[in-house]
Design a protein that fits this description.
By secondary structure, this protein is α+β, with helices and mostly antiparallel strands. It folds into two domains: 2-79 and 247-299, Immunoglobulin-like (Sandwich); 94-240, C8orf32 fold (Roll). It is 14% helix and 31% strand. The protein is built from four helices and 16 strands. It has helices at 117-124, 131-144, 158-164, 169-182, and strands spanning 2-13, 17-21, 40-42, 48-51, 57-63, 66-77, 146-147, 166-167, 187-193, 209-216, 219-223, 235-240, 249-251, 255-267, 292-293, 298-299. A five-stranded antiparallel beta sheet has the order 3-6-1-14-15, with no helix packed on it. Helix 3 crosses helix 4. The protein is globular and about 55 Å long.
Length: 302
């Protein structure tokens, strides 16, 4: 299938403000692009792109004083198949893990494993290791946390999500990642596009989505504790230890979010021409009212 994806994100800055963006399609999916996903800036701005230490394609800009709009829209080819399910994918002994995977066993900014080790042991020690254990963690998190946009909190950690029992997709992912790491299963946080493909349309505002990947059977597999069913059409943007590493935008100064619209939808074959978000008012979904981002704030998926 072909998927049309894109966004419009606007900032208002009182003065020139450096901003770091993680908004390009992940290098692992770039061979699937059917049209370019380059970022367009209004007003026009110079930009610099690079691969960060996690292999994500990032972009640096200096936003001028006043309003800046960042947007893109592109087509991507997708298998049209749901996330793979491999029940016999095994859990590796730590000594078998590749060197670059070991970091995903450690605690991080939002994955406070030191608070969850005993809880994870009590819940999952008796579950068969490997895929069944990761699925049991997803089942637990899915039933433990209630999804609520109004409960979004950029400072909530995995243990905070466990205590509060409410949150958004990032909270589901953080808690699942933490419980996996506590059980010696490498897990990493993911962000990207996930439209309502193959499922009933969600009336909530469309946003970038957060899920996680676990290292089983010698590779990374996608899991989604929020939805807890295999989904079609994930378009990966970035991976990291937690939301800190994959923030959609990081401003080094004051920047107020003024516009946030995300589009993800299947397009019929043959592919329809790429058109503006504005020409699809029925598919435009606006995020919650603009929020103010103080200096150093990292905007991450809700």
């Amino acid at each position: 299938m072909r998927i049309k994806a894109g966004f419009r994100i606007g900032f208002s800055c009182p003065q020139e403000t450096p901003i770091l963006l993680a908004l390009r399609t992940h290098p692992s999916r770039r061979h699937d692009l059917l049209s370019e996903d380059g970022l367009v800036f209004d007003p026009g701005l110079p930009s610099h792109s690079y691969l960060d230490s996690f292999g994500n394609l990032c972009t640096r800009i200096v936003a001028p004083a006043g309003d800046t709009l960042i947007h893109t829209e592109f087509l991507v080819r997708d298998s049209g198949q749901p996330d793979p399910v491999v029940p016999d994918a095994r859990q590796h002994a730590i000594e078998e893990l590749p060197d670059d995977v070991l970091v995903y066993l450690l605690g991080s900014r939002y994955v406070d494993t030191d608070h969850l080790g005993d809880i994870a042991g009590a819940l999952f020690t008796d579950v068969a290791p490997g895929w069944p254990r990761v699925q049991a963690i997803c089942d637990f998190v899915h039933n433990h946390i209630a999804f609520d946009y109004a409960a979004a909190d950029d400072r909530r950690t995995a243990y905070g999500g466990y205590q509060d029992r409410t949150g958004v997709c990032r909270d589901f992912a953080h808690l699942a990642v933490a419980l996996c790491r506590c059980m010696n299963i490498p897990a990493r946080y993911c962000t990207g596009y996930l439209g309502d493909i193959g499922v009933p349309a969600d009336p909530a505002p469309m946003d970038f989505s957060a899920w996680f990947e676990a290292w089983l059977g010698g590779r990374w597999y996608a899991f989604d504790a929020r939805h807890n069913v295999p989904r079609i059409g994930r378009i990966l943007v970035a991976t990291g230890r937690d939301a800190t590493d994959v923030a959609l935008s990081t401003s080094f100064g004051a920047a107020r979010l003024t516009t946030f619209e995300v589009l993800t939808e299947e397009v019929a074959e043959p592919a329809a021409p790429v058109t503006s978000l504005d020409s699809h008012p029925a598919r435009r979904r606006r995020l919650m009212p603009p929020r103010r981002l103080p200096a150093g704030t990292r905007a991450a998926p809700r």
